[in-house]
Amino acid sequence: MGMRLEHVSYIYSPDNAFRKQALKDINLEIHDGEFIGLIGHTGSGKSTLIQHLNGLIRATEGKIYYNDQDIYASDYRMIDLRSHVGLVFQYPEHQLFEMTVLKDVCYGPKNLGLSDDEAQKRAKEALTMVGIAEKEYEKSPFELSGGQKRRVAIAGVLAMHPDILVLDEPTAGLDPKGRNDILDQISSLHKQTGITVILVSHSMEDVAKYVDRIIVMNRGQVFMDGTPKAIFDRSDALESVGLAAPQVTYIMRCLHSIYPDMPMDATTVEEAKNDILKYLEADK
After folding, report:
1. At what angle do helices 116-129 and 146-158 cross, to 10 degrees?
2. How confident is the model at residue 90 (pLDDT cuts 50, 70, 90)?
3. Is the pTM of this model over 0.85?
4. Which residues contact 183 (CB under 8 A, 6 or more apart)?
5. What is the pLDDT of residues 133-156, one digit of tens each?
6. Which region, left, alpha or beta, applies to residue 113 given φ > 0 means left and ψ of -120 to 50 means alpha?
């Protein structure tokens, strides 16, 4: 059934001179199994919004429902929500603290009240999902590479068996290979398990490649909401709020201006390659 936000607003420091409205009348539905990209310039409200999804921040106004249950109801247990909605912060490896990789990933399941055996089972399953080999389990997390640390941190959330996985810039600071490895792994998890994924990213190329829906935030409000093609087709509107379409989209538009029969709506390199090859084949 997913999650529903109705007229959600949030104000930081409402009672003093530092008052700031971070969210304004947000209405959203997040459906089971979606892969959503959440984009917006710095200060647009992205991070504030995702912290509402697992109850880290309580809305100043409005309602949030998870599977049709009001998460602000007096008898609703927030720990239940957090076992279903997993949030991975930017640079999550800074939160690693246990002596070994396996112990670190076990921490979340144990907090849910699971036995040591069940926590270990979940931890090993999650580590396998993110591509961490068994030989790494007894190492200190701090001996791993940056990309491996990021995977371990994500595994720690996956071990709690969330239905919704929220990732705040999960590839920040990684090299291109590390970025692709992480996002490919997340995409594979989405396809294998049907988990709902919400990816916060500043990379239009990454969003175009992986997600099936984009939510654009601007000044604390939902500015646009639609498929990648529908959103990136409105590049002028994106540019007006400090964003842009993927670079390959602009390249294809330039080619279209020279070769009018060339399609111009590609949003990924793979789509652009296929469109160019089809055009050349038809032109023979």
Report:
1. 130
2. confident
3. yes
4. 170, 171, 206, 209, 210
5. 999 999 999 888 888 888 898 899
6. left
